[in-house]
DNA sequence: CCGAACATGTAAGCAGTTACATGATTCC
DNA sequence: GGAATCATGTAACTGCTTACATGTTCGG
């Protein structure tokens, strides 16, 4: 139930509407925990039912501004410190690697080279993001730490894919 | 629909029953694309309906051995070469990092140090796996490449988490 | 003979995606 | 006046998890 906690985490920084939360998911959480509009509104309802958030104000166009409650803060802290992150990562990029022996060496190499390019591109786009956010951090230490993870991950992926593409030619067969 | 393709990929190596596939998921795909018993049997039914696999033999205890069909091989190759891997990774470990400003510095540092230990542990377990599989590879080039990904990932995670834990003390606040 | 391993299936429920549906306000 | 943006909600469907349910064969 991480969507729930992502929303609590965002609301811990200040009140927001469903619409606001959606924007925050798109700009800052897109690469970590994407969420759709329909999910956000539905979960806000459940959070309110559970008294982890409450409607703090209503605005024009039916806008409902939600604020986190004390129970919500407690739940967020509990999740942060007591619940083990789950380590099962599904990667359909890596899954394909397992089955690359079903195509010929040329296609396998192409696949890996393409992944190297994609990783390099992601890396560049994260570098761009870093420059945009550059000055703004008094509280943003943790945002920077998460961004650094992305930079290191995409570097690693690029290097690995290039190495792997090279390995293929060292093998006998098609 | 990657479960479907994971199953086709495994069946491309030779016929297997649902039970066999389940074992293969547990031993070789557990860290890349986990699957449960109930998923595997249900998907085998759908694959057979779509003529991507067929029952090739029946054995004792109701055992049904499935073999991939030509259509199945075509579908697998199509997925390998024409379908872009989806790049949205959900990480509940990284999601927590964004919200670590909701707890004090000590708890945040503890969290990151714990992640460093977990990563180191995973790394060790992959090294163990590498030794087990060591001699067996004529076909297993791609298994080794995937394993190398895991090794590089867990190294990166350990280094990052240690670096991040250090960063926290450089910040003002609680 | 008994326990472990082999073997298959169904059902309920939760999480996530895509598509549908509607309406109000602001800015130009 | 009209387009963009703000704003909320519902419905259908797919994929995954957990739990239930049952029966067979092999090895010691």
Q: Tags for this entry?
A:
7 helices; mainly alpha; 174 residues; two-stranded antiparallel sheet; 2 domains; DNA-binding; homodimer; Arc Repressor Mutant, subunit A; 6% strand; 65% helix; 2 strands; elongated
Describe, in plain words, how this protein is organized in 3D:
The structure is a homodimer of 174-residue chains. By secondary structure, chain A is mainly alpha-helical. Chain A folds into two domains: 2-82, Arc Repressor Mutant, subunit A (Orthogonal Bundle); 92-169. In chain A, 65% of the residues lie in helices and 6% in strands. Chain A contains seven helices and two strands. The first copy, chain A, has helices at 2-11, 18-29, 37-49, 70-82, 92-98, 105-133, 141-169; strands at 53-58, 64-68. A two-stranded antiparallel ribbon of chain A has the order 1-2. In chain A, a hairpin with a 5-residue loop joins strand 1 and strand 2. In chain A, helix 6 (105-133) runs antiparallel to helix 7. The mean pLDDT of chain A is 93. The interface between A and B is large, with 63 and 62 residues. Chain A binds a DNA duplex (28 and 28 nucleotides) through residues 1, 3, 17-19, 34-39, 41-42, 45, 59-64.
